[in-house]
Specification:
The chain is mainly alpha-helical. It has one domain. The chain is built from 17 helices and two strands. Strands 1-2 form a two-stranded antiparallel ribbon. Helix 3 (48-68) packs antiparallel against helix 11 (203-223) and helix 9 runs antiparallel to helix 12. 44% of the residues are buried.
Length: 361
């Protein structure tokens, strides 16, 4: 299968959907209103995630249809499960975008979706026999129950990965606050996933990752500074889920080591995680919206959205390229590479903090 066909379809579907949505009533009724924590000053439709998700589902459907031409494989079952969970999650997030649900409602749903994915991905053999079990009279619920029961045999790993995936969803949402930033991270991150999957001999998964990157690129046509549309929770939570879910999938299928997705998406992971711990140490309410991320402080110190995005793209590209190189490097080189990036992030965050403190003084 030509990997570019699903990607081209995802781009076209996302672009056309967003063009239509911008002229719809929904664009006028689902607005991100500026407040004292915002980096923008104009009410902007936050419906971009709808286009991204529809594009991803379109590209995924083409890949699934191609896989259906062959006997059922684990990749087909996993892909169908991922598309189903993505649909449910994005539907819930759309309600959140419209009504503004509380964190007490949002987080349990995010963790439930994460739990379902992790429980099934921990043992791909269950997914490989899905059609056989259902065809023999087992219900899908019984199959899922069996998967969770098997995963519970490894409780520490199950809990760690579930909360890790839940955190990935929300940190992507936290980092979606500047024009072009989240969309760019998706293009570089899923582009790196696609390259690694292709070189590891998994063309179907590579095509799906490329379709996600293409859908994000179509969104960037409307979101790069000056932005005409924002992702909203539908887009940011869904992209965070896909980043974590595909990261686990690639790890379980031996496409890459566990550190690979962490390095690829480290521009978002490091900023969000360090900021969370810093706020917690200061005794602040970590679940409340704020403007303390490094990227937010750079804009508050005078950087334009365009300058921030282009600088972030350079960092994202460097992280993605180094992760691809280190994926097949000796262990000593991997350790040296990770140590290098720890020093780089320490220097970058330290510089932002030093300049921010000087500005406040």
């Amino acid at each position: 299968m030509n990997a570019f066909i699903p990607a081209a379809l995802a781009f076209i579907v996302c672009y056309a959907t967003l063009r239509w949505l911008l002229r719809s009533k929904l664009a006028r009724t689902t607005l991100d209103q500026p407040n004292h924590r915002s980096l923008h000053t104009t009410p902007t439709p936050r419906i971009g995630g709808l286009g991204v998700v529809v594009g991803v589902l379109g590209g995924g459907a083409v890949i699934a249809a191609n896989l259906l031409e062959n006997p059922p494989t684990p990749n087909l079952q996993i892909l169908l499960l991922l598309l189903a969970l993505l649909s449910l999650l994005s539907g819930f997030c759309f309600i959140d975008d419209k009504r503004g649900l509380s964190a007490a409602v949002r987080l349990p749903v995010h963790l439930l979706v994460a739990l379902l994915w992790v429980a099934c991905i921990l043992d791909v053999s269950f997914l490989a026999t899905f059609f056989i079990k259902v065809g023999a009279g087992d219900t899908a619920f019984h199959f899922l129950q069996s998967s969770i029961k098997h995963a519970l045999a490894h409780p520490l790993l199950l809990i760690t990965l579930t909360f890790g995936l839940g955190w990935m969803m929300n940190l992507y949402n936290f980092m979606d606050g500047a024009n072009g930033l989240a969309g760019g991270m998706a293009v570089f991150g899923f582009g790196a996933y696609s390259a690694a999957l292709y070189f590891s001999g998994q063309p179907a998964l590579a095509a799906f990752a490329l379709a996600i990157a293409a859908s994000a690129l179509a969104f960037l046509c409307f979101n790069f500074d000056p932005a005409r549309i924002f992702l909203g929770d539908v887009g940011s939570i869904s992209l965070g889920f896909l980043a974590g879910a595909l990261g686990l999938w690639g790890w379980q299928s031996a496409a890459w080591p566990a550190w690979f997705p962490l390095l690829v998406f480290s521009p978002f992971i490091v900023d969000a995680t360090v900021t969370l711990f810093a706020r917690a140490l200061r005794g602040e309410k970590v679940w409340q919206a704020h403007r303390d991320h490094a990227y937010q402080r750079l804009i508050r110190m005078g950087w334009s959205h365009r300058r921030l995005a282009l600088s972030a793209y350079a960092l994202m590209a460097a992280c993605a390229a180094s992760a691809l190189v280190l994926r097949v490097a000796p262990s000593a080189s991997v350790m040296a590479g990770i140590a290098f990036w720890i020093l780089i992030y320490t220097a970058l965050l330290g510089t932002v903090m030093w300049r921010w403190q000087g500005l406040k003084l």
